[in-house]
Amino acid sequence: VVEAYKTIRTNLTFLLSSSENKVFGITSPDAGDGKSTTAINMAIAFSQFGDKVLLIDADMRRSSVHKKLKIENNAGLSGVLAGFNNWEEVVTNISDSLDVITAGQVPPNPSELLGSARFEKLVEEVGQKYSYVIIDTPPIDVVSDALVIAPHTAGLVLVVKDQVTSTDAIKRTIEAAKFANINILGAVMNGANPKSGRRY
Predict the structure, then answer these.
(1) What value does the mean pLDDT take over residues 43-51?
(2) Which end of the chain is more exposed for a tag (fewer CB within 10 A), N or C?
(3) Dihedral of CA 13/16/20/21: which sign?
(4) Which residue, among 149, 29, 43, has the nearest Cα to 92 in the 3D structure?
(5) Residues 65, 55: contact at Cβ < 8 Å?
């Protein structure tokens, strides 16, 4: 698994090498595809380069990054976008090269906050400070938040799950991204079982 994430890291590094924007989102067609786990592991893999990496949990409706990393979620992204906090105040340091901004308290208007000028300013500021910024976004087939976030990034990485994500769901996600003129950087198949002969 570690080698697989190193391979993903290498491929993404090449894909982003020609772009000044080193901010990218992680999304999936549906909930339960392993998107947040993939985002965390990719952030760790990138931070092992020694580069400064920031992981932002922008899935404010069903945040899980703080649970998986066992860190506090009292103040986070929602507080920054609502104007209650500066982003520097809500950063949690995981290691010398990895920081996290959790989702914070659940707001009544996540899409509006993510489409705000404050979010655009946040992405611009953290993009200047960190070598890579990884944004964990909600699933595309569930809500439109990922499509609101994506224009501020170099593109989205699509997480699909072996034996779970259907071809139709993938097609709908790609069509939605194309319609919104959003770059799909590539796809990660999560939970792949090399011993399985089944295909979905």
Answers:
(1) 91
(2) N
(3) negative
(4) 43
(5) yes
